[in-house]
Amino acid sequence: MNQEELRAIVAEDLMHIRLGPDVEIQHELRVLFNARRKKDLADGFARKETIIHCIDYIKRVYPGWRPNIDRAYFDLR
User: Fold this and answer.
1) SS3 17
2) Domain ranges of the chain
């Protein structure tokens, strides 16, 4: 998979991570997901695994935070 394909997939994924509420934390999630997803794609991990990792990481700092994401897209029930 080349860099252009990686960017296109990550851009599509990011459309399913909304900007608000908690804009600053959601932005952190998007930044972390963007970086992590590129690596995870190259390593064969599913987007569900990436988003779970990123959410768990951010919840260490903001334990009461609830991510605003498209749960169905990330296959989270």
Assistant:
1) strand
2) 3-59
The CA dihedral of 3, 67, 29, 48, to the nearest 10 degrees, is -40
Look at residue 75 in the predicted model and tell me its pLDDT.
Answer: 97
Structure pTM?
A: 0.93
Whole-number Å distance between alpha carbons of 38 and 8: 10
Answer for the pair 25, 63: CB distance below 8 angstroms, yes or no: no
Q: Which residues pair with 17 in a beta bridge?
A: 69
Give the residues across from 69 on adjacent strands. 17
For residue 51, which of 24, 25, 64, 32 has the smallest C-alpha distance? 32
Of 30, 32, 37, give the one whose Cα is nearest residue 9: 37
pLDDT at residue 77 in the model: 84
